């Protein structure tokens, strides 16, 4: 959500007395139910998939941009490419329509949401079938407020009807944005929509944008409530197509990690926004960097790119099984930025396997924020970066599979050289675990 949109949101929340009365009534009506948890059993590991927003935004002109407009055609082509290019086999599963899929008004008889009839001529059930028949799952965007961020109808006065419509359309994943809404009602309203989704009986992952709108108003989100009611949630700004944007998100997540990191886990994830690999803004090494940090953060891996034009070396990063395994680690512990030295950041995440003493293995990303030329040499004592097992660790380079770096004990110092705006990403497998003695 950009600043303009934010002020748009603010404009919407100036309340008239009758609106205030409605809000209070609404809060009373839903708050007694808000203690009921989502408990849909979904997203035990961070969801993986594809969503159109970062790459395609709100292109609706299919006459001039037939291959780029938000249309049935785009999602069918992407579904095909997810399968034929190997992304589906690597775990990318959800095909998610973001904003700009609706007609500007609801059906005037039934009040139901209506997909844009020109751009989705066969209807959403047809598209859902197409996606399901390819072995993938179907996601859809909506907004908690009166309008979506791009100005299409939102759910606020039609929550039960819309939840039911999503179930009828065979939706598997719902992203509920928070433009043009009163943030004061979100603590009750978002759980209510989750409850209505659950009530349909159809399992749907529930992605909430509730915390980011609260953060914008200087309010600390209630993470315990988020964990109870949402499978994932957007914490911060929209990602744009630049390294600057990736870095800004990384900075937000690390500076606020004490209050954010503990809340990620199986069934409930912090979401730093989409992967932008394969677009215009990131170099090859910056692409490795985003993928590594998103793996450490246990972030949903939702790509937004044109799968037809992703270069082979970028595709190899997106499909790197070892990096994906870090992201999808079953313990689901979100990693942290452990330290910064000379503008080199060390990010680490405890992962499987564990050994008999209970020590974890770790994924460790050495991230350079330097821009001064040559690869920068640096060494760290393992203990200093949190790797304390007495047994030691086998070290493996996750991006260069041929590089097995050998055995390191916790007092050993680990030396590496990182190129500007690059990453070296390693797995430290603890000794004494079932497959490492
Ligand atoms: C907000 C969200 C984005 C995207 C757009 C669509 O800005 O944060 O991810 O969904 O709305 O309008």
TrEMBL record:
Membrane-traversing stretches: none
Keywords: Disulfide bond, Glycoprotein, Glycosidase, Hydrolase, Lipid metabolism, Lysosome, Signal
Any one GO cellular component localisation term in the record: lysosome
Keyword match Manganese: no
InterPro entries recorded: Aldolase_TIM, GH, Glyco_hydro_27, Glyco_hydro_27/36_CS, Glyco_hydro_b, Melibiase/NAGA_C
Gene3D superfamilies listed in its UniProt record: Aldolase class I, Golgi alpha-mannosidase II
The enzyme's E.C. designation: 3.2.1.-
One Pfam assignment: Melibiase_2_C
Top-level division of the source organism's lineage: Eukaryota
Compartments in which it is found: Lysosome
BP-aspect Gene Ontology terms: glycolipid catabolic process; glycoside catabolic process; oligosaccharide metabolic process
Coiled coil: none
MF annotations from Gene Ontology: alpha-galactosidase activity
Domain Alpha galactosidase A C-terminal: 332-422
PROSITE patterns: ALPHA_GALACTOSIDASE
Hydrolase is among the record's keywords: yes
Main localization, broad class: other
Uppermost EC category: hydrolase
PANTHER family: ALPHA-GALACTOSIDASE, ALPHA-GALACTOSIDASE/ALPHA-N-ACETYLGALACTOSAMINIDASE
Family indicated by similarity: Belongs to the glycosyl hydrolase 27 family.
Subunit structure: Homodimer.
Protein name: Alpha-galactosidase
Annotated source species: Ceratitis capitata
